[in-house]
Amino acid sequence: MAASLVGVFQEPGGGAPPAGIGHNPRFSFSSSFIYLSGAVHMASVNKVIVVGNLGRDPEMRTFPSGDQVANVTVATTDRWKDKQSGEMREATEWHRIVFNGRLAEIAGQYLRKGSQVYVEGSLRTRKWTDKDGIEKYTTEIRADQMQMLGSRQGQGGPSGGPEDDGGYSQGGGGGGGYSQGGNGGGGGGGGGYTPRAPAAAPRAPSAAPRQAPAKSSTGFDDMDDDIPF
């Protein structure tokens, strides 16, 4: 395989390679060109990372097989300073994201309009036909990973869900039957009392000294003196 052109440098009269190139065995420098030496195999990459806020609540769909799909739109905002006016400018881009399977269940349960999310996925273009019989194409992001960001109070889900624990464990417990989530109703009180039990333990020793100075026997002796018989 012939070497591939990587870059062009305007070096009058050739000369030494730019800093950092001459010592790299994968590059060769000739006159004003840099070539990759040898064959280079690079797989194509289709990867998208989006960090933004939902524009609306997830749109849920359930297939006859029972699989769920959640469609959301996430907004990302670019900000820059206008060179002429010196004012800050911004532009918002909306991204259509599709969650499948377990991610769809989590998205439908906890994500709401305004929720901030981190999403990794890949671009997919699908063809569909509208009600007029016209074929149309839509480019979406098929999510592979999702992480909820920002304040837990900004997330949805059942009350007392992830706000208390800050993760999937307690929120997932409501739907997935995790032990921690299962204790959230009845046993949850016991879980809350667990830290208080050590606090009660120090009270027991402190209570014992209080009983010692009380000297109940001494009190009884005084009472015996007052007994009329």
Shape: globular
The major pleated sheet works out as: 5 strands, mixed, barrel
User: Looking across the biggest beta sheet, what order are the strands in?
Assistant: 4-6-7-9-8
Topology order in helix (H) and strand (E) letters? EEEEEEEHEEHHHHHH
- What percent strand? 25-35%
Helix/strand-derived category reads alpha+beta
Q: What's the total helix number? A: 7
Count of individual beta strands: 9
The named CATH superfamily of the domain at 48-172? Nucleic acid-binding proteins
CATH class group of the domain at 48-172: Mainly Beta
Examine the secondary-structure arrangement and name the CATH architecture of the domain at 48-172.
Answer: Beta Barrel
Q: Which residues sit in consecutive blocks of at least 5 with pLDDT less than 50?
A: 1-14, 25-35, 156-202, 206-229
Pfam families: SSB (PF00436)
Function: Plays an important role in DNA replication, recombination and repair. Binds to ssDNA and to an array of partner proteins to recruit them to their sites of action during DNA metabolism.
Organism: Variovorax boronicumulans
Motif (Important for interaction with partner proteins): 224-229
Q: Would you give an account of this structure?
A:
With 229 residues, this protein is of the alpha+beta class. Among the domains are: 5-36, no CATH class; 48-172, OB fold (Dihydrolipoamide Acetyltransferase, E2P), CATH 2.40.50.140. 28% of the residues lie in helices and 34% in strands. It has helices at residues 101-110, 162-165, 168-176, 179-182, 187-193, 196-214, 216-226; strands spanning 5-8, 27-30, 33-36, 48-54, 59-62, 68-81, 88-100, 116-129, 135-149. The strands form two sheets. It has a five-stranded mixed beta barrel. The protein has a three-stranded antiparallel beta sheet with strand order 1-3-2, with no helix packed on it. A hairpin with a 6-residue loop joins strand 6 (68-81) and strand 7 (88-100). The longest helix has 19 residues, at 196-214. It starts with a strand and ends with a helix. The model is unreliable at 1-14, 25-35, 156-202 and 206-229 (pLDDT under 50).
